[in-house]
Design a protein that fits this description.
The complex is a heterotrimer of chains A (328), B (552) and C (282). With 328 residues, chain A is mainly alpha-helical. Chain A has helices at 4-45, 51-56, 64-73, 80-92, 106-139, 144-159, 162-176, 189-218, 221-228, 233-270, 276-285, 289-317, 319-322. Chain A contains 13 helices and no strands. In chain A, helix 10 (233-270) runs parallel beside helix 11. The longest helix of chain B is centred in the C-terminal third of the chain and has 18 residues, at 463-480. The two termini of chain B are 18 Å apart. The chains are: A mainly alpha (328), B alpha/beta (552), C mainly alpha (282).
Amino acid sequence: MTTVAPVRVATARRAGSTARAIGRRVLTSVLVLWGAVTLAFLALHLIPGNTVDAVAGGTTQVTPQLRAQITAEYSLDRPLVVQYLQYLGKLVRGDLGDSYALRMPVAKAIGQQLGSTMILLVTATVFAILVSVVIALLTAHRRRWIRGLFSGLEVTGVAVPAFWLGILLLTVFSFQLHWFPAIGSAGIAGLVLPALTLSAAPIGMLTQVLRQGLERVLDEPFVVTARSRGISEAAVRLRHVLRHAVLPVITLAGWLAGTMIGGAVVVEQVFSRQGLGRLTVNAVGHKDMPLVLGIVLIAALFYVLVNIAIDVAYRLIDPRLRSEDTTR
Amino acid sequence: MTPLVDVHNLRVTFRTGRRPVAAVRGVSFTVDPGQCVAIVGESGSGKSVTARSLIGLAGARAEIGADLLRVDSTDIRDLPERRWRALRGRRVGFVLQDALVSLDPLRTVGAEVAETLRAHRIVPDAEIDERVVALLRTVGVPEPEARAAQYPHQLSGGLRQRALIASAIAADPALLIADEPTTALDVTVQAQILDLLAERKKAGTALLLISHDLAVVAQLADHILVMRDGEFVEQGPASDVLGNPQHAYTRRLLAAVPVAHARGTRLSVAEGQPVAQPRGPVSDEVVLEAKNLVKTFTLPGHPVLTAVRDVSFRLHAGETLGIVGESGSGKTTAGRLLLGLARPDTGSVEVDGRSWQDIDGPARRALRRRIQVIYQDPLSSFDPRHPVRRIVGEPLAVTGVPRRLRGERLRELLDQVGLDTGILDRRPRELSGGQRQRVAIARALAPQPRVIVCDEPVSALDVSIQAQVLDLLADLQARLGIAYVFISHHLGVIYHVSDRVLVMKDGQIVESGNVEEIFQEPAHDYTRRLLAAVPTLDSAALRPQETHHARA
Amino acid sequence: MTVIDRIPVTTARRTWRPGLVLSFAFLIVVVLAALVPHLFTHVDPDAADPAATLLGPGGGHPLGTDQNGRDLFARIVHGAAPSLLIGLGASALGLAAGTVLGVLAAQSGRIGDELVSRLLDVLLSIPGLLLVILVVAVLGAGTGTSVVGLAVIVAPANARLVRGEILRIRGSAFVEAAHALGWPRWQVVLRHVVPNAVGPVLVLATISVGGTISAGASLSFLGLGPQPPTAEWGAMLAASRDYFAVAWWPAIFPGLALTATVLAITVTGGYLQQRLEGRAGR
């Protein structure tokens, strides 16, 4: 084997390799975002119907003057390539363009609604993670009927469409029992049912994956070895098993982010909450393309950031990914 | 002297399906302080379950019963979990095979060793690091300070196994249970680990050794228990069991081990005197020739790896050429080059006088029928959806055997490899290990090849099945005049089957020639080291005999 | 050598599974309702009766009526067809597109693989529902748009699976063994690669039908799916929102039908997956 010095060098090189890998990841993420921008831009300009009419909105009679003004304002007379480059140029400066319908910058419109949606997303995510970790830890390697009961519930949780679950909860808890307000986003009470609705499917999915992970790891030889050292069952589960079981769950975080964002759109609609979801639905209704595009890009950015975080988390937890030089 | 382990009529039953399965059916034995007792058996014999029962880790579904079950003067029947913990690690250390999966891959080696120290408060927290380093040094890990901070995957197989042993002996237990401690290791590393275990024994630790390998056991054991189907069929002092076996099963196991004096005889003999293995003539006709083969691999961020460098040899019809080497020696890559499944950087391979390099398309495919292959893991080499009928029938379809003749030929092939036609409709998963390898052989025979490359064909098999497969290959050679390239890490097997042998190291042939000459008078230093590391059955005879400790 | 070795491997588990039988039976009913709704009801789903709005379950209307006095049971029965059509259509289209992309990625060398894989990354980087919304924004709401939009979500996952399966199978020992037997390349693909890849891909497609039905209904709920007066479960639920406070049945029964269908498909798909894994030993 080698001497001490090369081992240190190898460690330093591994740290370098981690930084490089993450750098590579960021670079491909930028490429992916650029792809998303391009795709969305193309989709937007292949749209049937006249942009001018969309901008003019409710005005039934569009005068030639107004038409010319709008055309100039949005550079609609330029070639597509020029418009594309202009759009990219603005994007780099953080300018998402102006909303046709709301007559304000897209960034501002999104900014106004972002807070409400983020509160919902964060609450639902934290709740989903807590509940599924607890259920998985309690039901892994338990009696058959307990597992059967819970996995039945989990499958159902995944299968129930979020909007119907929302309707169900509203019917029971708001209209029949009057425990929670039926509409509006004010206060904690207004957050309970939406967050519950949004977290149902993620709880079902996360619990299943986590329990499978726990049960698989509990049978691994290194767990037998750990037990053979005389440590307690709690230490076995927390020090050895949980970290391994968490790995597949981290992989799911990307899926989770996507589901949560899509779910938020629907849930906000059901509960008549303020937020990006309603903004999106209204934007589509008004054919407000810059706004739709802006929201899609923000979501893609969020998703890409989550994926980079997943990569970093993976490398933090699993040393095998940190090093490229293995002896095997 | 009170025995450290005292077991009387131990029974272990698993309740998984509808029927309970009796894994251990009433075994009795003792282990005295400082003694090494070995349980030897093939897979499924119940040896691991017996060992794990002693530390309460036979699994949640295991039901354990015994008339007497005592470890370190503690009755461990229905022991509460808390008291188990006081026993595990502190009084009994446990070493599993292959530390790559037996050490937590997400934790440093040092943390794993320290866990035992912390669990039993062996030393104050401040001294733990120091003690970990000392322990690693004890088990022969070089630069222990640096190694303690590394993860299992960063260490070689040998170092990992040493670290695993260090974690098992950290609390200085009176008994060390080692379950197949050397199974995944190269022969030279295996020898080092066996030395290490011998050292522990000399230091006063009792050993309970679990192994499928009689030769490994012969190195260490004072007392041997031969286990089959959950029972001990024979037990006694090592020299008696190995030198004068009483039970037919023990004799069969011993006869099945390819050892020097068994060369030229059949391995799978039920009873009685050795039976000579019939041999066909080796002709002068060259069926396979490798000329200066070189194969390199480039992985991004790594130096160029030369897997095979300048390998040349000739193989004659009806001859067996052994290629022996440790893992990473390039022997498997060499096999792929011979089969035309990988292209050499330079050099050439000629099968029946035709070179892979010169031909393409149909001619190349036609040549493939001349040289066939048997893998170590037949299961993965079968399409999982296909029944045996299709697996063995496939080469007949390739070679254009008319459909109406295939059934006949199929039966003939199965007959040749000693399989019943009843298995034709089974899928690979439903076959035993030995049956799978026979199916693989039948498939390789189907195109009537001149050469078969056997890549570790018996390494995954129990010794008695291994014996049957080796005999089968020899029979087929005698009958059909097939030439074999026999790749293996197992020197005993290589010696048994080969006419000539190539010893490979780091992609190069370090020595080649007649197998008897090389094994008796190795010229190269590496060959000498390899041969010296091979555990032999004879070593037990060199140790003084001990008194009989096991219960009757 | 290990404990596991002693435990018998039960290859054919023929345990009685009420959930599976129930799911399968329910699916048959739903498919029948979609194909021949008249087996279940002769009431016209679109016949409004201003005199009978929001009648409770019972009497002449087993599940009651909606805000326009239309029979809820008839609408649910007739709603099976558009829901199934969207789910099956989107899954089939997604499967076809995904297979083409996956095969392209796996077979067209490094550059082709990179191009297709990055395209999939782009598609996957946009949350599913937003992607459909983008498609709807471009093409306008409707049944056809729903199918196309949902197919765009399903396709990348299918493509990744197809690519992964092809690479895995192509690298497996049994494919090398088939090459060693002397098959031409296309024969190996036809005999070993395709049949082994088909199973997992079809299982994913089956399971995705549940997801697409659910997502399709969500889209209708947002008003971005099939347009009125089509009897579609999601659209019915959307309409029911305004009458929650006075009538619970229009909000409950279509949702039950929808959830039960998705659940039944999930359970059936899960069973198919288990069988496949049991047989292939993975």
